[in-house]
Amino acid sequence: MAASCHCFVAGLLLLFSGVLSFPVGQEKRDATTCGYQSCHATKPTMLNVHLVPHTHDDVGWLKTVDQYFYGDRNNIQHAGVQYILDSVVDQLLKNPDRRFIYVETGFFYRWWKQQSSSMQQTVKQLVNQGRLEFVNGGWCMSDEATTHYSAVIDQMTIGLRFLNETFGICGRPRVAWHIDPFGHAREHASLFAQMGYDGFFFGRLDYQDRARRMNAKEQELLWRASDSLTPPMADLFTGILPNGYNPPEGFCWDQLCTDDPIRDDTDLEDYNVDDVVQRFLHAAKTQALVYKTNHIIMTMGSDFQYENANLWYKNLDKLIRYVNDQQGNGSNVNVLYSTPSCYLQELHQANLTWPLKTDDFFPYADSAHSFWTGYFTSRPALKRYERISNSNLQSCNQLEVLGGPVSRKGLFGQGDSETLRKAMAVAQHHDAVSGTEKQHVANDYAKRLAKGWQHCQVLVSNSLASLTGSSAERIYCDYLNVSVCPLTESSSKFSLSVYNPLGRSVTWPVRLPVNGTAYAVTDAQGKPVDCQVLPVSRATQEVRRSRGFAKNELVFQVRAPPLGYSSYSVSLLQDGPPSSSPQHQAPTSIQNKFLQVTFDPDTGLLSGLSNLETKQTIKLSQNFYWYNGSNGNNVESLQTSGAYIFRPNSSTPVMVSSKARVEIFQNSVVQEVRQWFTPWVSQVVRLYADSKAVELEWTVGPVPVSDEQGKEVITRLDTSIKTAELFYTDSNGREVLQRKKDFRPTWQLKKTEPIAGNYYPINSRAFIKDDTDQLTVVTDRSQGGASISNGSLEIMLHRRLLHDDYRGVGEALNEWSELFPDGLVVRGRLLLSLEPPATAADAHRPLAQQVVSQPLLSFTDGDLNPNTRLEFSGLQASLPPAVHLLTLSQWDQESVLLRLEHQFQSWESKASSQPVTVNLQKLFSTLDVLGVSELNLSANQWKDEMKRYDWSPEKEEKPLLKTFEDPSVWEITLRPMEIRTFLLRVTFK
Ligand SMILES: *[C@@H]1O[C@H](CO)[C@@H](O)[C@H](O)[C@H]1NC(C)=O
Ligand SMILES: *[C@@H]1O[C@H](CO)[C@@H](O)[C@H](O)[C@H]1NC(C)=O
Ligand SMILES: [Zn+2]
Fold first, then answer.
1. Which CATH class is domain 39-361?
2. Are 127 and 171 in contact (CB under 8 A)?
3. What's the gap in Å between 51 CA and the centre of ligand 1?
4. Does 168 sit in the ligand 2 pocket, CB within 6 Å?
5. Of the residues 28, 173, 219, 862, which has the maximum number of CB atoms within 10 A of its CB?
6. DSSP conformation letters of 195-215
7. Ligand nearest to the CA of 951
8. Ligand 1 center–CA 48 separation, angstroms
């Protein structure tokens, strides 16, 4: 999206009569002089201005990704990526000095496929000569607040793989480029460092932070992005661009802009060369005041610019010529075509020290009352769908490997993982999972994910048919969260297989919609499994609407082996009315062997939580509230609450209800208290027999807006924990960062928005703690959260707003659909665990992994063939507790990509924050590993060829890269927070 919301007058055709000639081919170029070797010479005694022609092409925002590619629906926004690439290539050929960078491989790939081989050759030559350079190079430019690291790594991997396979070494980007995302995550910086980037540039940061950094010349810095990885493994040089990502004022020469062209024929009217040169010299010198070296960068382009690249290049050619002509008159400004990597090379050669940063760039505010903290929660249903799709993709990838080639083409037809992989990559875009796109575009992202999942279903069915030896048709029930599954609702005998994508076995509760009242369930060994039948709740009946009719839910716990499946058979014993009826008197407590949850008998609300093993007890009350989104008539500022921005009209949220009506169900499998607050807010507090976490299943919506008030619904946990204004949130699902109320680690915060300015992104978990107690909340999607008063943690669940927030999307965030014409209903789960701080990570790390990589359920009707293999594990043994199997996917015919991750930070756990060694040859049960090569994190460079620029922080010894020896080729050691990426050559045993 655009950095500002100017209205450009489009389509103004400008005619030039001035003719310039260029010294073509002034230097002989090696056939492959790309990268740093292809940079233009600079002048060490002058101020060098690096002009970077670029376009910012959103992979969907106001239009869908394909509409942007084709230039369709130009009535919404004039933008056509295919024409941009056509035009830029054309213009690059006209003058070898010209440069262009391209960023979004998802678009480039679409264009490349359609080119003739001679055009492809031409483009390869431009890339080999460094005239066209890829930066960033992921499929999209990912959002940083609401993305999970596993999906970010995947989307970078497919983009960079395409570039490497198409262009080889010259296609490898040296620079990460996140010019538009709305705040910057530390984990993203850490990932970029591990992907081999030499530096990182971005455009947006808090306006107070920027002001201070400009003053102190600290807009270029060294980001130490991990507290656990040994420096400089996660060190990333970071530069903040001067004008967001736009050109300096007055120098925008795109067809979307209205600035004066350079009129350089003295015979014609309005000759303006002197004026342009003077204005440019002034802009350059002003900018140089806030940066450290005699090099500055100017981004010459913006959203979807260069569709008619001639306009830009013709004027830039002239600008360079006329500004540099002044050197003869004593000017010391030298301007040149450049790229971010050429600029970075100069900064590196300057051999300076740089300020060190160890926190992150959240939250982002562009002015006193405009905090971009709403999008942490915007479109909560899309955010959940994206997260489930990630889980399904991981299972699909793994089953493609475990099932062998028959997975792609087998009993059930042709399946693939590629469609979902690409849909997921598109969904990581900073206007996709972020929830900041128009409604029709959000629908398109969801449709792509659904289509991808259909392709994966065929693959999964083929793979499981091969692994189980059963050809029975496999059915997937995607609406189990609202108790809809036609098969289980009607069948009197069916079986369920539970595929577990994690490297250790899991126990998982299953709830299946049924119409009988008694069932028998047996596991893979034929042993009976304790199961119970409960009536479907009123809230579930309301949210499923006409999609299903089950009266009951069959509940039992399943266990699935590491990287494998286990099967359960279910038979109906009895039809008839529900056997268990609820108690309606207010409960005082529910408990299992690990936890006790207490309730206030007068209000029906939660009142306390105890860990029975550690003998910890805290007071814990929980309720639902809403902030009233500003509608633009506030005296201090006209800023509204919208898709991006959270701006409550008052700092005191409105309580939805002071009481909940309750029903309680208690049996040997689950204890649950169903709370009903109002017609649009309900919750179930659940404790399964074997769970060390309490589940809060919330259902919110349709949020009423007939009172003309936009509502931002939160749940708040108020506890007796003494938090001293601190709380903790994860960064992209990985390392945890400390947050302090009304505080920023690197500048003196002037407080303007007491609530919105304290919101932070939560990807998978947040916690509050004191010396004895830590309460961790594991979320099932990205959400915004804050700790406004001591002992309190609030999480924003749903937003329904009536106004646009003037950041370009041009719609109010007011979600509805045909099924929900009265407004979207959203359901999700929070898992709470209470542990001593010293061991809490041992509980919440695996818990969060289970929610992120959840078991994949599939069903077959009737009796199973007696030869069916009922259980399978792809691993020889469970991985050690510290190790997470992050990626297992087919790379090419004989190799698979494997990522193993140490999932603990260095300070988190006495038991688990230790180096751990894994033997790659003893990993798989059905695969022999014949060879191994290690790669960088994004799998586009061999590890032993990975050489990054070294940068020195201020006030500190330059870190020395410690290299660790693995015990052997096959035995590899992982240290806290380390991810290691391998290409394994494998065959089936
Ligand atoms: C960089 O600066 C250090 C001192 O700060 C000096 O020792 C070193 O030689 C310099 N390197 C280069 C390449 O100029
Ligand atoms: C990069 O692509 C080339 C072919 O262009 C291939 O030979 C090489 O193995 C690839 N590198 C990596 C790290 O995959
Ligand atoms: Zn954008």
1. alpha beta
2. yes
3. 28
4. yes
5. 173
6. TT-SEEEE----HHHHHHHHH
7. 1
8. 21
